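Colleagues,

For the teaching module next term, I've prepared a clean inverse folding example: a structure given as C-alpha cells, and then the sequence designed for it. I'd like students to try predicting residues themselves before seeing the answer, so please don't circulate the second half yet.
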C-alpha cells in the first residue's frame, strides 16, 4: 500500500501562493470543461457564452456589479471568520435575517421620515439581525462545544422557514394577490439606483468601505492580531492571554452583521418588499464562501473575487437560456471551483511526499 507523508511548508512565498492559486483555477476550469463536454456542450463555446453574458454588453456588466454587491459584503465577513478558523456556513441565513430586520424597520417606522434617516436605520437593524443570528452558533460552540459547521448550516433552514412563515402569515400583504409578499416599502426606504441599472449605489459604496476598513482592522489592529493568532494556534492564543470567547463573539457579530447589510441592500435596492428566501438571495451566502477563499481571506481582495463570481452567476444565467442547461449548472461550477481552491490552499501550506520505509514502519 502506498503511504504519503504530509509536512508543513516552512516558508510560503507570495509568488508560490499565486502560482498555486492560478493552477487551482486552471484545474477547476478544465474539470468544468469536461463536465460541459459530458453534457454534450462544446466547453469553449460554453465559456465564451459565459464571458459574453457577463462582459459582452453594458447590461451584463451592470448586472455583474449588482450581484457583486452582496458577495463583497458577505465575502468580507466570511474572510474574517475563516481567518480565525470559525467555519461560518450560515451567511445565507444571516443575510435573510438582516432582510427581515431591515424590512420591519422600513414598514413600521414612520414612513414620513426622510431617506437619510430611515435608510440608515434599516441598515443598522439589518446589521443587528445578521449579527444576532451569527452569535447563536458562536455561543453554541463556546458553551456546548457544538461544531459550528453543523449549527450554521442548520440555521440556514430555520431562518428560511421563519421568513416563509412571516410572509404567508402575519406579514402577508392584504393588498397583493397571488404569491405571498409583504407590503411594499415606502418610497423613503427605497435605495437610489444608478440610472439604467439595478446597482444600488449606497450598498455598493458601503460594501467597498466595509471591506477596506476590515482589511485595516485585520492587519493593523490588536483585534486583528488576536483573530490571526486564534486562527493559527488557538492554544497559543489562550496562553498569550487572548480572550478567546470575547473575540469569537465579536468575529461572528461582524461576519453575520455584514451579511445582514447585504440582506437590507437586496430588499431596499432590488425587491422593495419581502418575499420567498430564494427570491431575496440567489445563494449569495454560499457563493461568498468561494469568494472569500479565492481572495485568500483578504477582505479587500474580495472586491475582485466577488465581481469575478458575480460575473459567473450572470454568465450562468445566459448559458441556461442559450444552451438549455439546468439551473444547477452554476452550482456545479461554483462547487468545482471551491474544491480546487481548497485543494490548492492545502498544497500551498503542506508538502506531500511518499513515506519512506522507516516512516511507514
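(Answer key — instructors only)
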Amino acid at each position: 500500500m502506498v503511504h504519503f507523508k504530509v509536512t508543513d511548508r516552512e516558508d510560503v512565498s507570495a509568488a508560490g501562493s499565486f502560482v498555486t492559486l492560478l493552477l487551482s483555477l486552471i484545474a477547476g476550469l478544465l474539470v468544468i470543461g469536461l463536465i460541459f463536454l459530458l453534457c454534450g456542450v462544446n466547453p469553449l463555446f460554453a465559456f465564451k457564452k459565459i464571458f459574453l453574458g457577463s462582459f459582452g454588453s453594458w447590461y451584463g456588466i451592470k448586472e455583474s456589479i449588482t450581484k457583486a454587491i452582496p458577495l463583497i459584503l458577505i465575502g468580507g465577513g466570511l474572510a474574517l471568520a475563516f481567518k480565525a478558523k470559525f467555519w461560518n456556513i450560515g451567511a445565507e441565513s444571516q443575510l435573510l435575517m438582516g432582510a427581515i430586520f431591515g424590512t420591519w424597520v422600513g414598514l413600521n417606522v414612520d414612513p414620513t421620515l426622510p431617506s437619510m434617516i430611515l435608510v440608515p436605520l434599516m441598515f443598522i437593524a439589518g446589521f443587528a439581525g445578521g449579527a444576532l443570528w451569527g452569535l447563536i452558533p458562536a455561543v453554541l460552540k463556546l458553551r456546548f462545544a457544538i461544531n459550528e459547521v453543523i449549527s450554521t448550516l442548520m440555521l440556514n433552514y430555520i431562518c428560511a422557514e421563519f421568513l416563509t412563515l412571516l410572509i404567508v402569515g402575519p406579514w402577508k400583504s392584504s393588498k397583493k394577490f397571488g404569491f405571498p409578499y409583504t407590503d411594499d416599502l415606502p418610497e423613503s426606504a427605497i435605495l437610489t439606483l444608478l440610472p439604467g441599472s439595478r446597482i444600488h449605489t449606497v450598498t455598493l459604496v458601503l460594501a467597498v468601505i466595509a471591506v477596506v476598513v476590515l482589511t485595516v482592522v485585520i492587519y493593523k489592529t490588536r483585534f486583528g492580531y488576536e483573530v490571526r493568532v486564534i486562527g493559527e494556534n488557538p492554544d497559543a492564543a489562550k496562553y498569550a492571554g487572548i480572550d478567546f470567547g470575547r473575540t469569537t463573539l465579536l468575529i461572528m457579530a461582524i461576519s453575520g452583521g455584514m451579511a445582514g447589510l447585504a440582506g437590507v441592500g437586496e430588499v431596499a435596492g432590488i425587491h422593495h418588499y419581502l418575499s420567498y428566501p430564494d427570491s431575496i438571495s440567489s445563494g449569495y451566502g454560499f457563493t461568498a464562501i468561494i469568494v472569500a477563499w479565492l481572495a485568500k481571506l483578504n477582505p479587500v481582495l474580495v472586491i475582485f473575487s466577488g465581481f469575478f463570481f458575480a460575473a459567473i452567476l450572470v454568465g450562468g444565467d445566459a448559458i441556461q437560456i442559450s444552451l438549455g442547461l439546468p439551473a444547477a449548472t452554476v452550482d456545479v461550477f461554483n462547487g468545482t471551483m471551491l474544491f480546487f481552491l481548497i485543494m490548492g490552499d492545502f498544497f500551498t501550506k503542506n508538502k506531500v511526499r511518499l513515506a519512506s520505509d522507516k516512516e511507514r514502519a
